[in-house]
Amino acid sequence: MKELLAEVIRIGLPLSLMAVMFAQGLKLALGQSWVYFKEHPGLMLRSLGVVLVLVPLAALAIILLFDPAPAVMVGLALMAASPASPSQLIKFGKNAEGLAFLSSLHLSLGLLAIISVPAVLHLLSRALGFQAEVDAFQVAKSVGQTMLVPVALGVLFRRLLPVAANRIAPLLGKLATIALYAMLIPVLVKTFALVLEMDVWSYLVMASFMIANLALGHLLGPADAQQRTILAMESGGRNFGLALTIAALNFSQDKALAVLIPYVLLFVVISKSYLKWSERGATD
After folding, report:
1. What is the mean pLDDT of residues 225-254?
2. What percent of the chain has pLDDT over 90?
3. For the chain, what percentages of helix, strand and coil (3-state, to nearest 5) are there?
4. Of 241, 105, 93, which Cα lies nearest the Cα of 173?
5. Which domain does 16 fall in, by range?
6. Per-residue pLDDT tens for 44-65?
């Protein structure tokens, strides 16, 4: 069973994620994304600063303040160094109003990850006293395969065959998302015991990190309510697949999953609570 789980993580999840990203690319007009960056440079630079600079600083501050277990400390550092969660395109990709801001920010984070991930991880590892090295090629490969290339292919398909893209994007998006969650089920079932093994203090430390990230994006985000929510979720939602890839290169997969699985499940609960709160505030 452990070998099967490893194969699901290694092959099934990336393939499902690539299909989701291709479907999202079918909805994107890439030119509009870069035009948005050109028209709102201050907003985009501030947003990138929140995700790439302030989130790692928040991780460092929380770790130094709360002194979590070493495994949790490393897990938070890995998450802080891994931006551009692909799930954000799934959450907000259906709403055209914020899609230009989302796609511009998300693709920029993906491109910058090749530089930012090794740099942030190196600085955090030196500040916190643990050893973790990451090859820029591995980061580029992970981000490129799971996000940039599938999205680019979807955008290209849309440019060449816009009518066909509009027709197949909704169905393909639903099927790919179902497949992704179907791949996650055996992983969660097999590793659910890890949720019970983690102590309460570790959960409190992780929750503090998540809430701080969401607050940074919300408070420093644009005036538009939807864009502010998008930035909060970008700063709060980290790239689990990328963090797991880095962890697998430096630590055992079992040790990585023991922290990252509880982290992801806790973030699902906290992020859903934040989204409900922000939606309620937008309608008041």
Report:
1. 82
2. 29
3. 85, 0, 15
4. 93
5. 2-274
6. 999 999 999 999 999 999 999 9
Give the Cα separation of 6 and 203 in Å (integer): 25
**How many domains are there within the chain?**
1
What is the full DSSP assignment across 127-173?
A: HHT------HHHHHHHHIIIIIHHHHHHHHHHHH-HHHHHHHHHHHH
Tell whether 280 is covered by a domain.
Answer: no
CATH number at residue 100: 1.20.1530.20
In a domain, 100, yes or no: yes
Residues in the chain: 284
pLDDT digits (tens, 9 = 90+) for 248-275: 777 666 677 788 889 988 999 999 999 9
Scanning the structure block, which residue is given the tokens 């997969």? 253
Higher pLDDT: 180 or 32? It is 180
Does residue 230 sit within a domain? Answer: yes
Whether residue 82 contacts residue 119, with contact meaning beta carbons closer than 8 Å, is answered with no
What's the CA gap between 194 and 263, in Å, rounded? 10
Alpha-carbon distance of 269 to 179, in angstroms, equals: 22
Whether 281 is in a domain gets the answer: no
